[in-house]
């Protein structure tokens, strides 16, 4: 009854009966070691604790016609009783004697040690597999992080390039305004330089002695102003003051504000006169200050568009 003694030995070691019966049946009663291997391999099966149902015509502990009987199996001289199929008998020459309690305990102790070694080997194998999985997970995470960093770097390069092109465009636009202002100054200097004062003297001599001006009306000296003093009130309450030529366009004042004011670069704004209130348009930017009535002095206010 080797099968029954294998069953008893595993039960004495603390295994559940349902598991032990399945292990003995599925290993074909090939010994305690194979039964223990089967138990450790199928420990995680969902039906491991369900009662064992033997096939029709086969009862656990009975004889299996497909398996050789224990009497027909060859015995190995000097075999370890712990691995010879679990038979709790001691070979003594040609006879067998039952194992005493001390020998049973020794056999169970060796089986438990064998099981402990196998469990430790399985745990080591599982730890190695877990380490490999963790390494693979970290490698995949690093690859994903590198891809994200590459995409972010490409996006940052595009933004920097776009910002640089915008700054270049703004700088070129300001330079065009400065060049236009410089050309206007040169043209006015060639057109009006040195001739305005002599023309004024000739007209005065032809008219004779000046008569007393009327009590009301604009002062005649207003026509003689060649410069005007402009004060600009900034958005933060500060003020900028500068002197411009009377024939300079209003755009010169705007460029002066962009170059010397504390407004953020690229921020657009408009100019207006508070009294009487007047908002200057893009067409007004090309008109001289004298034509806009800003000579000899004026106060302008900056407003956001």
UniProtKB/TrEMBL annotation:
It is found in: Cytoplasm. Residues 43-226 are annotated as: Disordered. Residues 89-135, 150-190 have a biased composition (Basic and acidic residues). One of its GO terms (molecular function) is K48-linked polyubiquitin modification-dependent protein binding. The lineage of its organism: Eukaryota, Metazoa, Chordata, Craniata, Vertebrata. PROSITE patterns: UBA (PS50030), UBX (PS50033). This is UBX domain-containing protein 1. The keyword Cytoplasm applies.
């Amino acid at each position: 009854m080797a099968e029954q003694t294998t069953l008893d030995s595993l039960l004495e070691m603390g295994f559940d009966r349902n598991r032990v019966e399945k292990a003995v049946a599925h290993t074909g009663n090939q010994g305690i070691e194979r039964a223990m291997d089967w138990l450790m391999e199928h420990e995680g099966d969902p039906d491991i604790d369900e009662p064992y149902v033997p096939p029709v015509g086969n009862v656990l502990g009975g004889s299996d016609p497909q398996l050789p009987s224990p009497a027909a199996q060859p015995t190995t001289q000097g075999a370890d009783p712990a691995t010879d199929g679990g038979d709790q008998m001691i070979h003594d020459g040609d006879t067998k004697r039952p194992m005493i309690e001390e020998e049973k305990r020794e056999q169970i102790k060796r089986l438990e040690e064998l099981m402990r070694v196998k469990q430790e080997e399985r745990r080591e194998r599982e730890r190695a597999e877990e380490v490999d999985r963790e390494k693979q997970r970290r490698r995949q995470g690093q690859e994903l992080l590198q891809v994200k960093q590459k995409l972010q770097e490409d996006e940052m390069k595009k933004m920097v390039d776009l910002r640089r092109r915008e700054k270049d465009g703004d700088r070129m636009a300001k330079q065009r305004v400065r060049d236009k202002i410089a050309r206007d100054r040169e043209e006015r200097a060639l057109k009006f330089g040195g001739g305005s004062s002599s023309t004024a003297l000739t007209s005065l001599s032809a008219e004779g002695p000046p008569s007393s001006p009327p009590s009301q009306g604009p002062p005649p000296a207003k026509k003689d102003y060649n410069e005007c003093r402009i004060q600009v009130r900034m958005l933060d309450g500060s003020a900028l003051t500068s002197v411009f030529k009377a024939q300079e366009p209003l755009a010169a004042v705007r460029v002066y504000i962009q170059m010397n004011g504390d407004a953020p670069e690229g921020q657009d704004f408009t100019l207006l006169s508070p009294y009487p209130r007047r908002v200057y348009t893009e067409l007004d930017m090309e008109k001289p200050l004298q034509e806009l009535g800003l000579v000899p002095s004026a106060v302008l206010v900056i407003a956001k568009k």
